[in-house]
Amino acid sequence: MVNIGLLGLGTVGTGIVQIIEDRKNYLQKLIGTEINISKILIRDMNKKRRIGIHEDKLTTDFSEIVGDQDIDIIIEVMGGLEEAYVYIREALNRGKHVVTANKAVVAKHLEELTFLAREKNKAFLYEASVGGGIPIIKQLKEQANLNNIQEIKGILNGTSNFLLTKMIEEDLDFKEALKMSQKLGYAEADPTDDIEGYDTRRKLRILTTIGFKDRVKEESILCQGISSIKTIDIQNIKSMDCTIKLLGTATLKDNKYYALVEPVIIKKNSYFGKVDYATNLVSFVGNKVGELRFYGEGAGSFPTANAILSDVIDIILKNYHKNYSLESNDLDNINKLFQGRYYIRTTLENDTKDKMIRYINEKEITDKLITKEKDVAFITKKILKKEIENIISKFNIRTENYFIGRLEV
Amino acid sequence: MVNIGLLGLGTVGTGIVQIIEDRKNYLQKLIGTEINISKILIRDMNKKRRIGIHEDKLTTDFSEIVGDQDIDIIIEVMGGLEEAYVYIREALNRGKHVVTANKAVVAKHLEELTFLAREKNKAFLYEASVGGGIPIIKQLKEQANLNNIQEIKGILNGTSNFLLTKMIEEDLDFKEALKMSQKLGYAEADPTDDIEGYDTRRKLRILTTIGFKDRVKEESILCQGISSIKTIDIQNIKSMDCTIKLLGTATLKDNKYYALVEPVIIKKNSYFGKVDYATNLVSFVGNKVGELRFYGEGAGSFPTANAILSDVIDIILKNYHKNYSLESNDLDNINKLFQGRYYIRTTLENDTKDKMIRYINEKEITDKLITKEKDVAFITKKILKKEIENIISKFNIRTENYFIGRLEV
């Protein structure tokens, strides 16, 4: 029997228990023994649960789980950052394999936990931390064995994608779309991480670190969110026969790389443009295999639980990269040199507005200009992204008063 | 050192040699030892080669390779059917791991070779046999551990997809498109397997056998090719704002399954509609993970070699499903009950043509009718596919005089 300690019994934890129950006979045949969730860490013993679990299995005390000699694998799906990190580290230190879906912990501590797992000769796997149900982490690790990964690109955050899709499809404004997303369970009460791009940045940091074989930090990724997008932006985007997606993009060439998270305006009918609601798409380019694209559910109880359990099966069957480690290729970050064509909309009082229009006209950086009352929207020629930051700071434009999206059309 | 015997030094074989050379240092670090192609089976010692290979490595005698105690893994990329099969079987029998890209052999002997490998405690892997560079076989095996696979769908043949794309994009007729495909290396001198759908059928047979956990034979898959498609069909399809793809589709519900290979008319802007030229797209639906889609290069030296070498690395690192076997779920094939809306074009002499039009009008199966000289094209209501076969045989229409595509719009 393989005993598992489960940290957390929320949506994903419940999905894990259900899949194991559902596939009981099949898994027993596959691995030759039973998978048993022997202990579950919860916060509140009195909370009502969707599924029937024997009370003896529940505990509020982590030490009961990590101290249990019979537990081989610990699955962490409790969320949060500090506590989860401490538990994962402790579990590895005590000789347990660890599987987690926690992108915040993985993004922050990927190197430390990977090295610790290797030192202890245990697995530290995190398939579910990026792309939900899409099997991307293992893929990328394996393809990076045979390929120089030259580009990684993805719609990696279901919440922001759901929100943007709703705005485009149903002409909702940002607040309405956010409210609806929250009501339907696609956005959290505090949506900051999702709408400001931080969640996408974490995932891109994980993918680039694996794919580019260097320690790409979150700070090395430029990050622009979608919280300031207005109805006028949606109208402008639609009038271009386009849609907008929050994309993580990184390219590597001659040991130099860009890495950005930003709203990108693309043709409605492009591959990325057709990835709607809470689905995710991840693509990467290898110098041998060419471009590979992976599409699937970016979140949800079963898809995420499915990704976690595929890690668990790999551990039980010893089908994981036992010697896997992270490398340091010492790449140069050249985000400062990043150029693109940008859509910029500002909302300003008349005098500032006029000054800004004069300024950008003098600079000759715009192809197109749309003004409407206080809103000025313009599309730039190919310029340094830094230039835009210059304009924003020169005219002291507040965060809520501008929206920027890169054009990929 | 891991010694490999390579059977075949054509496009893919050459790619394998090149990638191993190119990734030498990296692979040595990854697996802790060198990968060495120690012997290569070729047909003609005097043929000029694109790459420099030491003559001592080349042999025209298979027994020299299979008899070599130092060789652990045999890679088969020689193509063909009977000879390749005999060599693979012999290699497994002599205790070698085998990796192959040969879809014809895999389709015909999947069960036998899988069981033999298991008996001998060796690997028989065939990632490259379906989807070229797309890592689909391993994925599907793994997802089928946790999911009931309910649907498998794919553009699986690069040649026919290239050809159809050329016809749609450049208004070429079938012959011109075929000639161009042959000239560019996308179609073989004898393109029968590709354009009649046999190659797609083989791949669908492999995927369904893995995914549905039953031995789905080639004979259990209805198969319709594209060789009779004419310019008028392309025009009709384009006038519907659609495109046409040769799709393999299989669905499973309540132990009953359909499996078909047929031209399918879909919206130009749909996911499958946008997969052009020699690229492939495979999608499957699991009851837990939802739909997953995988896109990539369907053929080519490096993508195929890449897929083969990912199998080789899995063998060396023992990261393959050592106990993997095939199951027999005893499913019912219900192809006879398959229904769809169909586009049918026939080219007939006037009297037969009139009779047929009267017949289909009486049967009330058509939604729409387009006639032009000898060509009659009509779109049916949802009907049994069998009905179409009835019409074809009732009016004794010869293969080259009709074209059928299912509508998925």
Automatic annotation (TrEMBL), chains A, B:
Residues 8-127 form the Aspartate/homoserine dehydrogenase NAD-binding domain. GO terms for molecular function: homoserine dehydrogenase activity. Keywords: Amino-acid biosynthesis, Methionine biosynthesis, Oxidoreductase, Threonine biosynthesis. Residues 135-313 form the Homoserine dehydrogenase catalytic domain. Pathway: Amino-acid biosynthesis. PANTHER family: HOMOSERINE DEHYDROGENASE. This is Homoserine dehydrogenase. It comes from Tissierella simiarum.
